[in-house]
Design brief:
Helix content is 1%, strand content 48%. With 450 residues, it is mostly beta strands.
């Protein structure tokens, strides 16, 4: 299923009225496909990809995994009560290899007299078993403001947990932790860290409530605060939900803010400029495509003194934020919670309904022609050969494979309804298989080669 996409163009600093259009089903926009690939997730999901093909999705009470570049998702951990007898109220996590990963649970537990605590579990066997590594606050503390809700590991040894009044650092895979920020008493919103990212091997950024961004130039061990709302400072109530940097330009970063604002820096955080204002959605997550350099925002619900806007959208710009195309779905309360681009070929986004979408480049030359016949391909994913089955009434058959950029990579004529193709020479990736008869397209399907 594909998410219907309706373009609405608006420009930098525009605060004009927006037209809200709500659709859901089967189309494309411009050069992008947005396909619904899973409904297995839960609210407020987060992604963690270890390479271009393998990734994880954390939400609710389970972890999902993909090994085919986000086309399909399967349950890795179905019930977090398998880790502990209590129900976790919040889940986030990351993997650094197929085997090694961490998951954060935020719990309220009256049984053990824990009113608000964070628990970090680690797996070294691809999720088959999990070991409790870290708790904050300890079990004997009834309430403390300093809790972590997220985890980020740069490799198997270096990692950070962060959240409400807390930022801690480990160099031994989570066995021991060093406090960087730790508030024992109640902390204000200005102490909440929502996002942590690296722009290069040594430079890291955190962002959170209070309109600030912290920067580290020594591999995340010490931090300096950067304020970018002139004249306002740390007492602001604006929420910075996410920050990301370009994989090809270490100085180019984007910050997503709760009041309908996106900010961009082109000099490593020294100056942050508005690239979007007056947008009636909370920008929850941002990403920059390593393929075409487009900027993406996963947006959600937004409320102010005039009321609440119960819509959500995907937003992207192909000109460094000068103009925007926004993709609006149904008016239901289904805010988008995360967006990532694991490779130049595709991105992933998810919403609070548990839906996971895959964003890819559209081959416009193929999709200008509709298809009516079905195509069956097996095995899919394939390794060395694949069988293509189509309507046996068709004559003068030609089977053509196109790569993600629309380039023809393999073609074969056939006089049978079933054809076996040798795909061993093709590289791993996603391909489009097109069946033509009498020079008319009769069928089309996706093929994954591993």
């Amino acid at each position: 299923m594909k998410l219907s996409i309706i373009p609405v163009i608006f420009f930098k600093h525009s605060i004009a009225s927006l037209i809200y259009l709500f659709f859901l089903i089967n189309t494309t926009y411009g050069q992008y496909n947005v396909d619904l690939v899973s409904t297995l997730g839960y609210s407020n999901g987060k992604f963690s990809f270890i390479n271009e093909t393998e990734g994880f999705h954390f939400s609710g009470n389970q972890i999902l995994k993909t090994i085919d570049s986000g086309h399909t998702w399967n349950v890795l951990l179905s019930d977090i009560t398998a880790l502990t007898h209590d129900e976790g109220l919040y889940m986030n996590g990351c993997f650094v290899t197929s085997d090694i990963g961490w998951v954060v649970l935020r719990k309220y537990d009256d049984i053990d007299n824990i009113k608000d605590s964070s628990f970090l579990y680690k797996t070294i066997d691809a999720g088959a078993s999990w070991e409790l590594q870290h708790i904050n606050p300890p079990n004997d503390i009834v309430y403390a403001a300093a809790t972590f809700g997220s985890v980020y590991f740069k490799n198997e040894n270096q990692g950070w947990v962060y959240g409400n009044g807390l930022l801690e650092y480990t160099t031994d895979g989570g066995a021991t932790w060093t406090n960087i920020i730790h508030h024992i008493g109640n902390s204000s919103n200005n102490d909440v860290i929502n996002s942590l990212t690296f722009s290069d091997d040594n430079t890291a950024y955190t962002a959170g409530y209070g309109s600030w961004i912290q920067k580290s130039v020594d591999d995340g061990t010490t931090w300096n605060t950067q304020h970018y709302y002139p004249g306002q400072g740390v007492t602001d109530d604006y929420y910075i939900y996410d920050i990301t940097f370009s994989p090809s330009n270490y100085d180019l970063g984007i910050a997503a803010i709760s009041d309908g604002v996106l900010k961009k820096t082109s000099n490593g955080g020294v100056v942050w400029d508005d690239i979007l204002t007056g947008y009636p959605h909370s920008n929850n997550a941002v990403a920059i495509s390593p393929g075409d350099g487009s900027i993406w925002s996963a947006a959600g619900d937004y409320c102010n003194s005039n009321g609440c806007f119960w819509t959500s959208a995907l937003l992207y710009s192909n000109d460094d934020g000068l103009s925007w195309n926004h993709i609006v779905d149904s008016p239901n309360n289904n805010s988008y919670s995360d967006i990532v681009w694991p490779s130049a070929e595709y991105g992933m986004t998810c919403n609070k309904l548990g839906e996971i979408y895959r964003i890819s480049f559209e081959n416009t030359s193929l999709n200008e022609i509709s298809t009516t016949e079905t195509v069956s391909i097996y095995p899919n994913p394939a390794v060395s050969e694949v069988t293509v089955v189509h309507d046996e009434t068709l004559e003068n058959i030609k089977i053509t494979l196109y790569d993600i950029q629309g380039k023809e990579v393999l073609s074969e004529s056939s006089d049978s309804y079933k054809t076996i193709l040798d795909v061993s020479i093709l590289t791993e990736g996603v391909y489009t298989v097109v069946i033509t008869s009498e020079e008319l397209i009769k069928g089309r399907s996706k093929l994954i080669i591993q």
